[in-house]
């Protein structure tokens, strides 16, 4: 959501199984539908939409998808890609520990374990 299709192509080139909602005709889906798709397909949701943080923080389920929210001052694809590279080591460490919300800013990453109690 809000992530450039170019970033998705770049992720694929890096060997990741990445999809863009637009490719599946789901770019106009509700946030709940997007979360359900991410959960059902065991995906990490990349977004620039703060509504996803609110939605997942309200759910008390244990099997929520990890959501990465980019809050960058410059959200052009090459900057998003650079931040993805920066956070990959963090992701690789936490991914087996459950679901998280990562808020990625220019020089900071905030991590919250889900569900939020």
Explain what you see.
With 117 residues, the protein is of the alpha/beta class. The chain has one domain (5-114). The protein has four helices and four strands; from the N terminus they run ααβαβαββ. Strands 1-2-3-4 form a four-stranded mixed beta sheet, with helices on both faces. β3 (99-104) and β4 form a beta hairpin. α1 (5-13) crosses α4 (77-94).
Indicate the mean pLDDT. Answer: 89
Distance separating the two termini: 26 Å
Molecular shape: globular
Along the chain, the helix and strand elements come as HHEHEHEE
Uncertain residue ranges: none
Strand order of the largest sheet: 1-2-3-4
Largest sheet: 4 strands, mixed
Number of structurally distinct domains: 1
What portion of the residues fall into strands of 2 or more residues?
Answer: 15-25%
Give me the secondary-structure category: alpha/beta
Number of helices: 4
Report the helical percentage.
Answer: 25-40%
Number of strands: 4
User: What is the radius of gyration?
Assistant: 13 Å
């Amino acid at each position: 959501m809000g992530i450039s299709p170019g970033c998705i192509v770049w992720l694929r080139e890096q060997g990741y199984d990445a999809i863009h909602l637009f490719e599946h005709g789901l770019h106009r889906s509700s946030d709940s539908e997007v979360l359900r798709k991410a959960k059902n397909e065991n995906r990490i949701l990349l977004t620039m939409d703060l509504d996803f943080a609110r939605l997942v923080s309200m759910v008390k389920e244990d099997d929520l998808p990890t959501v990465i929210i980019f809050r960058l001052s410059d959200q052009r694809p090459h900057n998003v890609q650079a931040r993805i590279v920066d956070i990959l080591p963090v992701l690789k460490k936490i991914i087996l520990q459950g679901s998280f919300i990562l808020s990625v800013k220019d020089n900071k990453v905030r991590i919250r374990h889900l569900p939020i109690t």
